[in-house]
Amino acid sequence: MWRVGTVVALHxxxxxxxxxxxxxxxxxxxxxxxxxxxxxxxxxGYFAVRSYSIASAPNSERRVELTVERLxxxxxxxxxxxxxxxxxxxxxxxxxxxWFVWRTEQTEPIQLIAGGSGIVPLMAMxxxxxxxxxxAPFRLLYSVREPGAVFYGDDLQTLSDRDNKVSLTYAYTxxxxxxxxxxxxxxxxxxxxxxxxxxxxxxxxxxxxxTSFVEAATDLLIASGHGRDKIRTERFGPTGDRK
Amino acid sequence: xxSHTYDYLDGNAAAGELSAIFAMDVTIxxxxxxxxxxxxxxxxxxxxxxxxGVVARCxxxxxxxxxxxxxxxxxxxxxxxxxxxILDTSQLQESG
Lengths: 243, 96
What we know:
The complex is a heterodimer. By secondary structure, chain A is α/β, with parallel strands linked by helices. Chain A has two domains: 2-96, Translation factors (Elongation Factor Tu (Ef-tu), domain 3), CATH 2.40.30.10; 110-236, Nucleotide-binding domain of ferredoxin-NADP reductase (FNR) module (Rossmann fold). Chain A has five helices and eleven strands, in the order E-E-E-E-E-H-E-E-H-E-H-E-H-E-H-E. A six-stranded antiparallel β-sheet of chain A has the order 4-3-6-1-2-5. In chain A, helix 5 (211-223) links the parallel strand 10 and strand 11 (231-236). Residues 239-243 of chain A have low confidence and may be disordered. The termini of chain B are far apart. Chain B has one helix at 15-19, and strands at 9-10, 30-33, 39-41, 46-48, 54-57, 64-71, 74-78, 82-86. Helices cover 5% and strands 35% of the residues of chain B. Chain B has one domain (9-89). In chain B, strands 1-4-5-6-7 form a five-stranded antiparallel β-sheet, with no helix packed on it. Chain B has a three-stranded antiparallel β-sheet with strand order 3-2-8, with no helix packed on it. By secondary structure, chain B is mostly beta strands. At the A-B interface, strand 3, strand 6, helix 5 and strand 11 of A face strand 1 and helix 1 of B.
């Protein structure tokens, strides 16, 4: 079932990523981690559908935020990040997906691992935790190319400063802030040991990012003792416009 | 079959397409592979979307679980790769 949302705000997260806030009058509510399909239809009837994760926490205002990364040869993301304006309407299907979700009833430790724009559904989980006053301990390991590519940096800092049960570790792959303690590089065994919940606490792990990142992160978690059944993944490919 | 090409997504990426067909969220159902017998959540299957349609393969043995193609006002759904789909009916209210 397709719904129509109206764009009420636009916010640039980075030079290539924009958050689109939609008001969707018949929105039934969502769970953190879910996504929507967005459909763009051309004048000649040609249409393209892409999936985007919801960045906002569940809320009573029927407000849905999507953060879209512009892909150089994308068919949909250049329009969403450069041409879409406040007041425009967008067709949506969702909320979608009941597997890659964090529910506020969950009290166990939560390990979030994001690669690049894979932060989006994990941000919805962190925001959902904050808005409902959950005491579940959260750790986020956020692998990102460089400081300028970070999404929601201020919001993440505020949420983790306010609550010592939310901890935040950045892992930069290409360039770091000045005097950063770790050389640029991919996540590895040492970082997993240092920055994530030990497996004996049996955390539920949510891993989101490009397919190769998710493979690597999942392998590292399993090698450090986490059960496969405690790891939930959401991959997106380099060619689809996903996220 | 090698799965090191990194060109697949997770079964949960098919949730939107399948929601147009099924009343429930099939991605949270458990699916039994007809080839190796493994029972996993459909959301954990490997999903290939580069084909004209969608192909889901077993995360354990890579056997085809599901094929879904839409063409000329018709949808073709091939489920022979799954011997059983186990649905949690308490989730009925949540399917979107």
